Amino acid sequence: MPTHSDKYLEEQIQKILSVPRYPEKYYTLQGYTYGEVYQMSLEFASLFSSMDHGDRPICLCAKNKAVIAASLLAALFDGPPLLLPYSHSINVLSEMHDSTGFRFAVSDTDMALPEGVEVIIPELGQLPAKRLLKVETDPDRQWLMLYTGGSTGTPRIWSKTVSNLLSEALYQSRKHHFSPADILVSTVSPYHIYGLLFSILVPLVSSACVIDEICAFPNEIITAIQQHSATILIGVPIHYRALRDHPITGNSLNMAFSSTGALAEEDGSDFFRQNGVGIIEIYGSTETGGIASRCRSKGETGFTVFDDIKWKIKDQRLYIRSGFISPEIKTDKNGFYKTDDRVMPEGENGFVILGRSDAVIKVAGKRVDMEEIRDKLRKIAGVRDSVVISIFIGKGRENAIAAVIEGSPDKAELRKALSSLLEPYAIPRVIRIVDQIPSTPSGKHDREAIEQMFRAEFYGLR
Asked: Tell me, which GO biological process terms does this entry list (predicted)?
C-alpha cells in the first residue's frame, strides 16, 4: 500500500474538519461529545486567528483529552503550530519559553506559567456548532512541535507536519480496525508521540471513544477497563510488567498495544495467558513515527515493517524512508534515514533488533554490548528488570559499566551467575538493587536518574 497522496490527505483533512459523523457520541467517555469537541475547536480557531502570536507556537498545556483534540483541530484548520511540553513544571515551561518565545498557552487547569504568557481557556457554548469552512491545508505545513522525553540528555524538539501525523493516524486506524464501537484506556500521556497518536488522533479519525484519565497503577488500569468495558488498552512496558499476576476479570479487551521501549517477552506472555489478548508492540520513535510492529502471541519474533514505509538493511543498520518522519531528520540522497538500531533481516518483510549502535562500548580494549549484559541479567533468578549503563571515568577514554537491578536476587548468587555468564571485563563494576527502576512519565527508563544513582560510587574510581 503506497504512502498517502496529497490529494487523499486533503480529502481526509476536509472530512476531519467537517461536522463529526456522530456528534452525540462521546469522544471522552462521560465527558465531551464529538459535537462539543468540534464546537470547542471553532472557539479555539476564532481565538487563534485573532491573536498576535507573531508566528510563534502556542503552548498546549491542557490535561483533558477533549480540549487537546479541539486544540489540534483548531491548529489544523487555521493557526500556528502547537508546542507540546514534555513536562508541565514551571521550570520546564520557563526553559521552553526562553527557547521558543511562545506568548500564549492553552490550559484547562490553574497552573503556573512563565511571566507574560497569556492563558487561553475554552468557554464551551460561545459559538454554534457548524461545519468549518473549506480550507486548503498544506500537508507539509508544521502542525505540532514535540520533545523527546529528556531521559537521555537534553530534550530535543521535533516538528511534525500535518502529513506526518494524519498519515500515521489514518494508517494505524485502518490497519488495526479501530471503530466507533471501541473504548480506549491509556496509561501514557498524550504529550508523548505514542500517546498522542493512539489516545487522541486515532480515536478522532475513527470516531472511537477514549477514557480521559491516564491510568498508571494496576488497580486503576483494571478498574477502568472493567467499569467502562474498554476494548483497547494503550500501554507501555513498565505498566505491563506491573500487571503481571493481575488478571482482568470480565475482560472486554480485544486489543492491547505497547511502545516507548522493549516489552519483556515474559510480560507479554503473562498478559496473553491471563487475558487472552496478545500485545501488539509498536517500534518507532518521536522523530521517526511508527516503523514496524509485532505480536509475539501470534508467533511473531521479528518486527514487520508497516506497508507505508520503505526500508533496507546495510551493515546491520536499519534504514527507512517514511512519510511519518520529522522534517528535521537528515536523509541520504534517496531519502533514507539511518536509525540507531542494529538489526538483521527475518522473513520477507521483517527484522530482528540486535541492539542499539550506541550500546556497544569498549572496556579495556574489548567490545562490550550493554544490551547483551542486560538480557543476561534478566535471566537470573530474582531479577525482574535491569538497566546497564556506561560511565566515563578518569581523564582518558576509559568506560566503567554499572547496572541497576529491579527485584530481590541473592547478591552472592547474582555475582556467581554473572561470573559464569560474562567475561570478567563485562561484569558491571557497581550494581544497585532497587524495588523499582526510575522511569519517566511515558514509561521509559529514566537514564538521567539512573546515572545519578551511580555518580557517587564512580567518583572514587580513578
From this structure: fatty acid metabolic process
* 317/426 same-domain check: no
pLDDT tens by residue, 294-330: 999 999 999 999 998 999 999 888 999 999 999 999 9
What is the CB-side half-sphere exposure of residue 271 using CA atoms within 13 A?
A: 32
CATH of the domain at 401: 3.30.300.30
Task: Please answer whether residues 176 and 277 qualify as being in contact, where contact means their C-beta atoms are separated by less than 8 angstroms.
Answer: no
Structural domain contains residue 1: no
Same domain, 381 and 321: no
Distance CA 195, CA 197 (A): 6
CB of 349 closer than 8 Å to CB of 305: yes
Q: Is residue 43 located within the same domain as residue 177? A: yes
List the CATH number of the domain containing 36: 3.40.50.12780
Q: Are residues 166 and 128 part of one domain? A: yes
Whether 356 is in a domain gets the answer: no
* Residues present in the chain in total: 462
**Of 178, 229, 228, 235, which Cα lies nearest the Cα of 205?**
178
pLDDT at 443 over 80: no
User: Could you tell me the pTM of the whole model?
Assistant: 0.81
- Using DSSP bridges, classify how beta strands 279-285 and 232-235 pair: parallel, antiparallel or unpaired: unpaired
Check pLDDT > 60 for residue 283: yes
pLDDT of residue 357: 67
Which residue's entry shows cell 522525553?
149
Looking at the structure, do residues 174 and 314 belong to the same domain, yes or no?
Answer: yes
Domain that holds residue 44: 6-351
Question: Of 328, 351, 374, which closes a domain?
Answer: 351
Does the structure show a pLDDT above 60 at 462? no
